[in-house]
Queue: 2 jobs
Job 1
Amino acid sequence: MARRVALVTGITGQDGAYLARLLLERGYEVVGGVRRSSTHNDWRLRELGIAHRVRLVQMELSEFSNVFYVVRDTRPAAVFNLAAQSFVAASFRQPLYTASVDALGVTRLLEAVRIVDPEIRFYQASSSEMFGKVRETPQSETTPFHPRSPYGVSKLYAHWTSVNYRESYAIHASSGILFNHESPLRGREFVTRKISSHIAMFRHGLIDTLRLGNLEARRDWGHAADYVAGMLAMIEAADPGDYVLATGRSHSVREFAELAARAADLDLVWEGEGVEERGRDRETGRVVVEIDADFYRPAEVDMLRGDAAKARRDLHWEPAIAFEALVEEMVKTDLDRLDRNQPLL
Ligand code: NDP
Ligand code: GDR
């Protein structure tokens, strides 16, 4: 690629921050798409020390003219489409908005790419949520899809739209089917960061209990810093394609909570069943975890475990950070933030 401008939608999110850092390290000029808001939301970019090195432009994915002019005026070599209403639980309450941004937003962006310059390379942030009610385990690029939420359905539309623009217009469009990836920069409503931040607040005496939903759900959790390297590998590959990125290991929410508690010197013992279940600290007997049925979902994705053999083979991609190290990093970072009187964002 001759020109080295990368346009990253959703740059204020978790992946946007890690990807921007990686792109800068690799010599790209980074332009970040930010939706209009009354408050400036660049804490992740600041935490990684790169806020001053990226150029931010206003970009709202539900507005075609806005998307089109940004692509036309920035003339990127590559577009990484990370912007989305990304919280599955919220998609049940806001299905139309989720579809507009997560599904149609991708058509808007790909139309802009097609019209401005079909040589622009494109990465779509697809999701293991597309597998939903899984037909086989582990899940790979050839596993049939069965999404279980408006989010999953929207991402599936976006996935096939990316495939379609590749096949119809020869656009270098890749779809990364990424399994859950987390980090200290994860949003606080997602279960991993909810657990790490609440455990840290519990340790600091700032809250009484952590209220969770389904403890039995299993996810294939990796580290976001590893996964953005896979995104860049897809963009830089000679040919576009669809790739699963996953660790191949799956853990329950319960296991995540136990490990996170241990990283803060709490030893969880469980008692009761269903919504009556509690997790107490063995030493003090204090209740650390309670169940709150409000966090159950209308339709659940019970278990996900990915097979990233294709990415290993074709992209030489391999996740480096193990589950245990990820959990520890997340809890220690939140404890550290509180030690330094930083708000947990
Ligand atoms: P985040 O929720 O942290 O970030 C989402 C980003 O999208 C934010 O910058 C957000 O802006 C922006 N955004 C939301 N709505 C709009 C809109 N209407 N117009 C423009 N920008 C918008 O998500 P992640 O970083 O975790 O994930 C990145 C992408 O990867 C998402 O598409 C997600 O669905 C997908 N994905 C994530 C996985 C994961 O485990 N993290 C796994 C598989 C896929 P603001 O800061 O203003 O909210
Ligand atoms: P997910 O992530 O839905 O997999 O989507 P989330 O962390 O929200 O949920 C994971 C699992 O944990 C269960 N759970 C809870 N979840 C939340 N948020 N809060 C709770 O209190 C709680 N208790 C139990 C959930 O039911 C679920 O089974 C993430 C997002 O990043 C998507 O954008 C991305 O596409 C997928 O990962 C892959």
Job 2
Amino acid sequence: MPNENKLPRSGDIFCNVIDNYGDIGVTWRLSRQLANEQGLSVRLWVDDLASFAKLCPEADAAQDSQRCRGVEVRRWREPFPEVQPAELVIEAFGCKLPQSYVEAMAATAEQPVWINLEYLTAEDWAEGCHGLPSPHPSLPLTKYFFFPGFTRQTGGLLLERDLLARRDAFQADPARQRAYWQSLGLDMPEAGTLKVSLFGYENAALGGLFDAWAASAQPVLCLVPEGRILPQVGQYFGDAAPCAGSGYQRGNLRVCVLPFVEQERYDELLWACDVNCVRGEDSCVRAQWASRPFVWQIYPQHDAVHWDKLQAFLKLYLAPLSPAASQAVQGLWREWNDEGMAGQAWPAFAAVRDELDRRAQDWARLLAGNNLALNLLDFSGEIGKMRAFKIEGQ
Ligand code: TRH
């Protein structure tokens, strides 16, 4: 059947898991949105199903093909099976598509829209590169760069249709929050307790921050999902085998280790906390949708290029803040990323939390209209129309 409005009806999304959960976290989220909110028939090709199963526990890492939450999840292995390419093809983060699949794309009657979904950055150059075409050197195919981002000149951010309404309902409902804490095996924290979630990479600054929380006048409850920072948490409290369910107390600081949960449930943790320490890319975006102050541990890259990325984000995020609040955030983020004495910057950060709360809410409102999945479909539709126009004009 001819596709009159030129919006894609099917999608193939390719994910090569490099390390951690960011690559699969983003592609799994996008797959579900395209399938469940936009009605596309979506195949997600993943080369590491064990990582995928951490985000989606009902998945079976031993299966080559399975349906999970409206998405066909396929093991990406070589030799790549012979399949009909989808109308929208997304390679995430520059992963190299199988040669046979690229050739099949070139052989289709209507060329698929081929997108390279890039990493998120607030750096200015992303606006200039967003949407640029890259013709294939030998085949009649063009790939387009699609940059997520924080401004209208970029592709926006992944945001589920009902996420903000669900967040508001959760944050306004003490009964739901109580039930959430109980599901973690904890009582609802007493009013006045500062609740912090802490998802991070190894970080030598951890001890300093823990010291500051232990010595603070306000009780601090810190929730640590299982992961790379856990050995250091154990070391701080003299426990050689920390695991989900472990709990510790020092001074006014209580730390509870949580299991790594499925992706949707991680949002609830962010909504339930007053401050969220996040890392990488996807958890950082989720912390922004939580509308609470956050501390970002950026994924470290060669030649320290991640510092430019961090500064570019701070420039946008901090622009309307008072000098005191702006300096407080910069101080803590720098220490947390530079593995300095993060504890030293904490009191200044804690002192401006009201202003940071307001900023977090404004920021999420500002970003919410720039939805990546919708932008991606609009972009694909435009390319489809442009091609149809060219063919007609021939
Ligand atoms: O896991 P990450 O460190 O991934 C990183 C980044 O994406 C980085 O940009 C990339 O270059 C590198 O991988 C290779 O952090 P990120 O991006 O926050 O991804 C974590 C995912 O895990 C996110 O989708 C949220 C999810 N998550 C859960 O589903 N359950 C949990 O309990 C927790 C803590 C996280």
